[in-house]
Amino acid sequence: MEEPLDESGVVMDCALTCMKHLWSWNLETLEKLGETEKPLLTYDVKEEGDQLLVWFEGELVYDFDEDGDDMDDDDFFS
Predict the structure, then answer these.
(1) How far apart (Å, rounded) are the C-alpha atoms in residues 54 and 44?
(2) Other C-beta atoms lying within 10 Å of the C-beta of residue 17
(3) Cα angle for residues 75, 11, 21 (degrees, 5° grid)
């Protein structure tokens, strides 16, 4: 069910939308919009002068497999 938003995401009117699942998030507040099921995971950032510092302590991972089912959307819809 994971979909890289750098491949399927579209930004318009300060909202990020996954075009595969049609989930959307407000990029100012990070709140879920519409029928979005999962929160948007983000890295901690800090602005220092003209630099933006990002803390990459690990990969951001969603817990999509809560029900124990290892079937992916691509498997389901093929």
Answers:
(1) 6
(2) 20
(3) 20
Q: Which two tokens stand for residue 75?
A: 């498997």
The string of DSSP letters for 18-36 reads ETTTTEEEETTT--EETT-
Q: Alpha-carbon distance 38 to 65, whole Å?
A: 12
pLDDT, one tens digit per residue, over 2-59 is 678 888 999 999 999 999 989 999 999 999 999 998 898 888 999 999 999 999 887 7
* pTM reported for the whole predicted model: 0.66
Residue 46: CB atoms within 10 Å: 9
H/E element, 73? helix 73-77
**In a 3-state reduction of DSSP, which class is residue 64?**
coil
Give percent helix, percent strand, percent coil of the chain, each to the nearest 5: 10, 30, 60
